[in-house]
């Protein structure tokens, strides 16, 4: 790492087969959040910048390396599976396939280009934020609403910034803890499927950078930068179908 040293390295015990001794080695935590580890976050930020410079704005597909012939895409490998595993898979597929219209799949990763009336061409990208639904009201800071002035929390109290109640359920009896827990448990799968479904629906191999962050109410929350653009309604439709599917 070029930018300082990780502030909370993960310790690993390494066994040296030559000397028969073991020692403890610190491995960088690799966090992308400055609040967790500034040096690692900075290193990650620089890596992303480099990756963006080299790949994000490409308008041609990179040539696959010569020795990558055997490497398959996850979507394609299913079709090449042996007969027996394919049968198993096809049953599973049907149960958890998202209810979305089929689009012919293109191998490209480059997004669509748009030409403005003045002849300039654009190839926009997009930002997606995925927020899970509400499980019930949580205590929050007073807000300023146009025409209404200061609006207090749902519970009627104007909470201070340091109130321990903030972001906790207003009514613990009706707050949907079960759903909150299930959503949090299945969130990684949800993100995987979301991108899979988005690619299927958009018809190209959209590439993305994403980060998952906890919200104050502790629900996970996804920010993704995606190469190319997909209609807003399509993204919404995919998100809904994916949530339903997972
Ligand atoms: Zn670190
Ligand atoms: Zn409150």
Number of domains: 3
What series of H and E elements makes up the topology?
A: EEHHHEEEEEHEEH
- Radius of gyration, CA atoms, in whole angstroms: 23 Å
What's the total helix number? 5
Compute the separation of the termini in Å: 38 Å
From the helix content, strand content and strand pairing, which structural class follows? alpha+beta
Question: What is the average of the pLDDT values?
Answer: 83
Task: Note the beta-strand portion.
Answer: 15-25%
Shape verdict = globular
Q: Count the beta strands.
A: 9
Uncertain regions: pLDDT < 50 for 5+ in a row? Answer: 77-94
Q: What portion of residues is helical?
A: 25-40%
Major sheet strand order: 5-9-8
Largest sheet: 3 strands, antiparallel
Bound molecules: zinc ion
InterPro entries: RepSA (IPR046828)
Protein name: Replication initiator protein
Biased composition (Acidic residues): 62-82
Pfam families: RepSA (PF20199)
TL;DR of this structure?
This protein is an alpha+beta fold and 246 residues long. It has helices at 38-56, 74-80, 83-96, 177-202, 232-245, and strands spanning 10-16, 21-27, 114-115, 121-122, 126-131, 143-145, 149-151, 208-214, 220-226. Strand 3 (114-115) and strand 4 (121-122) form a beta hairpin.
